[in-house]
Amino acid sequence: MIIKCPHCGPREASEYTYIGDASIQRPDHNDTDMEKWSDYVFMRENPRGAHMEHWQHTSGCRSFVKVLRDTVTHEISDVTLEGPWQAEDKS
Amino acid sequence: MSRYSAFSLIKNALSGHKNWKRTWRAAEPKPHYDVIIVGGGGHGLATAYYLAKEHGIRNVAVLEKGGLGSGNIGRNTTIVRSNYILPANTRFYEHSMKLWEGLSNDLNYNMMFSQRGVINLAHTPGQMDAFARRGNAILLEGVDAELLDTEEISRRVPGLYTGQNTRFPIVGGLCQPRGGTARHDAVAWGYARGADKYGVDIIEHCEVTGFIKDGDTVTGVKTTRGDISAPKVAISVAGNTSTVMKLASIDKMPIESHVLQAFVTEPLKPLINTVVTFGAGHLYISQSDKGGLVFGGDLDGYNSYAQRGNLPIFEHVAAAAVTMFPNLARLKLLRNWGGIMDMSMDGSPIICTGPLPGMYLNAGWCYGGFKATPAAGWCFAHTIANDAPHALNADFTLDRFYNGRQLDERGAGPYPAHQ
Amino acid sequence: MSGNRLKNKGLLIDQNKPLEFTFDGKSYSGFEGDTLASAMIANGEMMMARSFKYHRPRGVYSAGPEEPNALVSLRSDGRLEPNCTAPTVELYDGLDAHSQNAWPSLSFDVMAINQLFSPLLVAGFYYKTFMGTGQKFWHFCEHFIRRAAGMGKASLDADPDRYEKANIFADIVIIGSGPAGLAAAKAAAPSGAKILLVDESAQFGGSLPEEQGNIDGYDANEWAADTLKTLSEIDNVTMMSRTTVYGYFDDNTLGAVEKVADHKAVPENFEPRQRHLKIFAKRVIIAAGSIERPLVFDGNDTPGVMLANAALRYANRYGACVGQNVALFTNNDDGYTTAHQLKALGVNVTTMIDAREKINHGLCKDSSINYITGHVVTSANGGKSLSSIKVAPYDADTKSIGPQNTINVDALLVTGGYTPTINLCSQTGTPAIFNDEIQSFIPGRANRPWLAAGAIMGSFDLKASLEDGISAANESLEALGLPPSNMTALKVNGQNPVAIPFALTVIPSSNKSAKKFVDFQHDVSVNDLNIAHTEGFRSVEHLKRYTTLGMAADQGKTSNMNALAIMAELRGISIPEAGTTRFRAPYKPVALGTLAGRDIGNHFSAVRRTPMHNWHMDHGAEMIEAGIWYRPRVYKKSDETLTDAYIREATAVRNSVGIVDVTSLGKIDIQGPDAAEFLNRIYANAFLKVAVGKARYGVMLREDGYMFDDGTSWRLSETQFLMTTTTANAAPVLSQMERLLTLNWPDLKVHVSSVSDQWAGMAVAGPKSRDTLNKIITDVDFSEDGLPFMGVTDGSIGDMPVKVARLSFSGERAYEVYTPTHFGTAVWKEIMKAGEAFDITPYGTEALGTLRIEKGHISGPELDGRTSMADVGLGKMASSKKQYVGSSLKERSGLIDQSRQTMVGLISHDHKPLKAGSHVLNGTENIGHVTSTTYSPALEKFIALALIKQGHTQIGNTLSATFPLKNERNSVLVVEPHFYDKEGERLYV
């Protein structure tokens, strides 16, 4: 599997660390609702098909990318940069 | 149904093998059953068998979207052991082990359950301490375990490199002598035959496309072969749990699906006579009765429903195998396959009533599904029959992810595939 | 003709260069260019193996990697390689080959007795027997079953050869160099695209040497030679022979094996035996060709029966003649061409049997051949070598045979049409399509970056195959944004006729005990398929698994299509309705050594050594792994035991001064205006008010509320912290911080960066630590006010800068000294020198453990991923005034349950060592386990830390610590987990 890092170009998935489902939202830091936190930590949609997920280019530039990947064919249709540097991502 | 024996085999040979019966009937779905089991894999079939045998519930349908046993029961590395560290897991898997030990006779189908011992290798004194903790814990539970030194391991596992000139020298190991391997497909076929004998309908190529509900209560399923109703609908579709639960409008589960690859070499004369696991390299290895060396590795590491994996795991498994056994370098890998693991968020399974009324769930098997098959079926049948879990699966709830009573066998936290 | 060698024939061999080799110890000769199979045939040795289950004699059946029968072992000792297909083994001088699965010899094999029991040894045999009365009986039987199973023997010696890996990037990868592959390469080459042409054989050209047609006026073989020469002169074309693409992975990544030195006795110096190639392709053209299909009749596995095209290849390429009196059995026109080509090469083809009644009589053009149409071969007879065949008229409508005639022959060539080699296409997940004309599956057309071309698509005639190649090249060029080739269609004359097979599934027989093999290698016969069908194993998957058909080392290359046809017939459905299985990698078996490459033994996984590593080694250190690091465990003096050494080291720290290498701790530089706020969110205790120049111990939780890591963070300025983590968690902690900052708190102005490699660290501990450091570190005021406990400051030793933090893991007055990595050893030595007066003692992880256990400080065994802060006595440290990572979930009922196991200290009552991994019994109840143990020199007692149920309620009680693995049990006193200097006075001594 090859993921196109917006900084480094196409690199093998083995250079990245899989972080997981990107559709889940971390509750607000000051939220104390235990159930919300449990949902965030444990519950996953785990779709068969299109999956939005986070990967980190740990053996490269260490940036985080949001990847749209099909969990059946493994085809990647979109990769975008995450975080405050997002705006610079012109790829 | 005729019993299998050497005698029946000779008798049939004399008649040119024309008089064998079908191993299980090709049943047509009826409109109503007492229990519907969704999933005709090892667990679903075992559940049907024990429902019929232990609880007298025989008006049961097992629905399988493809061919019987086409899921993980036929896509694993066939290892059976019960040396888990958490008492809830130890007790459950030991129950499974005991069932395994009587299974061929119980089902009159040879599972080729070979108790050749499972040896876990340790590479640091710290790992030896952790193994001692585990070995002592399971001995106190009445399960077998022995601590091995390097010389003893070397004696039992010829070809294993036990010298110091390697990245992870072996300092000792933990062995469960009663652990071993079994012929995976035979497990599915044996349970199918056993359940069929009691009148259970095994319905292949019958995909569940939706749930019939009365309010929140599940009262049946819609399938590609028509609607079927039942007061109890049991889900046993590890690998596809999330997909099936979504049909019941349960959108999230504490489960991710991941691909785990396995490999087999060309057939060889007996070479490795036990199961050996190499934790530092995420490798386990055994030799099938047919002669192929069977390897299992680590997850590919990303959500996947593809029953195939990628090259990095090929390379890593081979490197681990040759590191452990430098004599294997010239042996050839013959085949590779991938199973879709139902990775629960704490590494332990779920067998419970619910989550909806009328529904029962068996899921989240991670790497343990094959060895669990008999006990999973046995406990799930108990849970379905009594609308309450057996003591052996009382901890395998969905609630535990909310109340913090996670069964974190690996101590790795809520990350199924990494860290 | 001399022996079975056709004189002056053989395109690939040099009859002037003889080679010697042995088979089962017997000497033979062959020629340079031979394969093991061709040389054996030329020596008149057809039988080369015994079959898997029945130990039937088997001869070579094919001329390629599809070989199901002739599996042999090559070489010996560490280089012993079992299960090699003889037709793909290139002969070299001195080659030693051995037969397999036969005892005492190939010709007299005791296990051939299995043939007598063959009526029992059918599909499903093992599932129905050996159950006896339980496991014991099965284990007894299994011992013998295992010995009978398996094919070759593996060596117990390590392989002395080396394997390499390479990455290759190409615009167009062309797999197969037959007509389609070569045409594609020729068409694509002028574009300048980077082209990689691979072929699994030692030669390029595929089927072209046996092609009779001519291309653009050239003989096909000459055209191939000319094309290859042209290609070899083009810079952007790389050609690799002996290279098998075995796997097609995601995103056009191909796995391939290059056999670098298998055609030599041993690799040259510095040469690998094989090379693993990871090929990153933009476009792939799969021109993998096709494999001839066997016919299914009684005794079709008798040595002397083989594929027709294989016999032609042996004659044409190696001058090896498969028999003196040869019959050919066909169901298609191609068989005739093969027969006539063989005749022309000097092979005595006497009889042709064609199952078809009506044929084009122009085919029967050789008057010396007896053409028998509308007939089938009903059986091949002869045991170890073919002596005769039976032939009978065949009625295709009723599928029945008439009276049989015997014909004496010593070779029978069969052709049942051709099966496209769709394995790689199938691996990509694209479903195959059934082609009625060729009675086989071809690759489906997928919207993927690959194309299939040539015989693999069922384009069996030369012209179509070449055109396929050109159009595949053009389509690939277009996809790459390059202009198409100006190569026009090639002119082809006189090509071989196309093999359109006549459906001939199973040939009936009159002999009930005879066997018709479908899968030769796994001894699966038609009878096994019938049994599987009777018992309900009717889907492809069930049939394969129940009979093991197609699961042997040849992966069913010659058997799958026939089995599908038979199965479809049994079920009364069409072949495509019966389905096909999906092929999986590898297409051909791949050596584990090749996949492993150099990442084995010491290179299996990365190692980190601290800058002071060599100093430790020079001073008697025994190293131990800590995460990916190596750290000194103890420094042994003369004949000290491990225990002696750590007691001496720990005592020295308590009494005077010691020094320990702490470089392996994770170190993370945290900078930015929000650095303190950030730490305050990720640590469970407060961090906002850490003063500049001070360090604070902190505990991190996972998101689920359980303990994650601990360490100190030093505030270097208002906006900068230096964080230390445990050795094991350096990478996970960094990743978690990066994740939170990037994905969740992008508003925080903080940047984190690993500086673990930038700093060498050492802890100097003991009452004389200050005196030691004071001697050499300048610019640091070591007074109690100048550098208080938890103070951090900068100093220098000569020109070498150091950071000094007054922290203590041992409980003694202690300082951590950090210096840039390259000064590590120099600083260490300076401190050693300064400490000489106090007999400074380097200590390792064992003594470190002793000191921290005496103090009740937690480490790895207590941080096992399942403990909460409260469990290990840190509950009060957690802030209740703020939210932090894990703060909500740590309050879940399961984590605050009063019955949880909590940390206590244990003291051995009877002065016996305690063992880590022991369990603590309260009566007979197992209430927890011993996490860390040591002998405490300070207490002169054996002590331990343990996690036990409601530990705080057990203080003062006597329990037993049991180690049933060794049948040991100790009586222990439960105490608070602080054995030494609970008040912390030693920090100021």
Can you put this structure into words, describing what you see?
- The complex is a heterotrimer of chains A (91), B (419) and C (989).
- Chain A is mostly beta strands and 91 residues long.
- Chain A has a single domain (2-27, 34-88), classed as Folate-binding superfamily (Folate-binding fold, 2-Layer Sandwich).
- Chain A contains 1 helix and 6 strands; from the N terminus they run E-E-E-H-E-E-E.
- In chain A, the strands form 2 sheets. A 4-stranded antiparallel β-sheet of chain A has the order 3-4-5-6, with no helix packed on it.
- In chain A, a hairpin with a 7-residue loop joins strand 4 (50-56) and strand 5.
- The two termini of chain A are 19 Å apart.
- Chain B has helices at 6-14, 42-55, 87-107, 125-140, 150-156, 184-197, 241-247, 311-324, 369-386, 400-403; strands spanning 35-38, 60-63, 79-80, 118-122, 146-148, 172-176, 180-181, 201-203, 208-214, 217-223, 226-229, 232-235, 255-267, 275-278, 283-287, 292-303, 332-344, 350-353, 359-363.
- In chain B, helix 2 packs parallel to helix 6, helix 2 packs across helix 9 (369-386) and helix 3 (87-107) crosses helix 9 (369-386).
- Chain B is globular and about 65 Å long.
- In chain C, strands 8, 9, 12, 13, 14, 15 and 29 form a 7-stranded mixed β-sheet that branches.
- The mean pLDDT of chain C is 94.
- The interface between B and C is large, with 116 and 121 residues.
Output the keywords:
heterotrimer, A: mainly beta, four-stranded antiparallel beta sheet, two-stranded antiparallel sheet, C: 989 residues, alpha+beta, Ubiquitin-like (UB roll), FAD/NAD(P)-binding domain, 7 domains, seven-stranded mixed beta sheet, six-stranded mixed beta sheet
Report strand order across the widest sheet of chain B.
5-6-4-14-15-16-13-17
**CA-CA gap between termini of chain B:** 51 Å
Derived from helix and strand composition plus strand pairing, the structural class of chain C reads alpha+beta
* Total DSSP E strands of chain B: 19
Q: Supply the CATH class of the largest domain in chain C.
A: Alpha Beta
> How many helical stretches of chain B?
10
Run of helices and strands of chain B: HEHEEHEHEHEEHEEEEEHEEEEHEEEHH
Radius of gyration based on Cα positions of chain C: 38 Å
Main β-sheet description of chain C: 7 strands, mixed
Question: Spans of chain C of 5+ residues with little confidence (pLDDT < 50)?
Answer: none
| CATH architecture descriptor text of the largest domain in chain C | 3-Layer(bba) Sandwich
Report helical residue fraction of chain C.
10-25%
Number of strands of chain C: 52
Q: Write down the Rg of chain B.
A: 21 Å
Mean pLDDT of chain B: 94
CATH topology of the largest domain in chain C: FAD/NAD(P)-binding domain
List the quaternary state of the chains: heterotrimer
> Main beta sheet of chain B: strand number and arrangement?
8 strands, mixed
User: Beta-sheet strand percentage of chain C?
Assistant: 25-35%
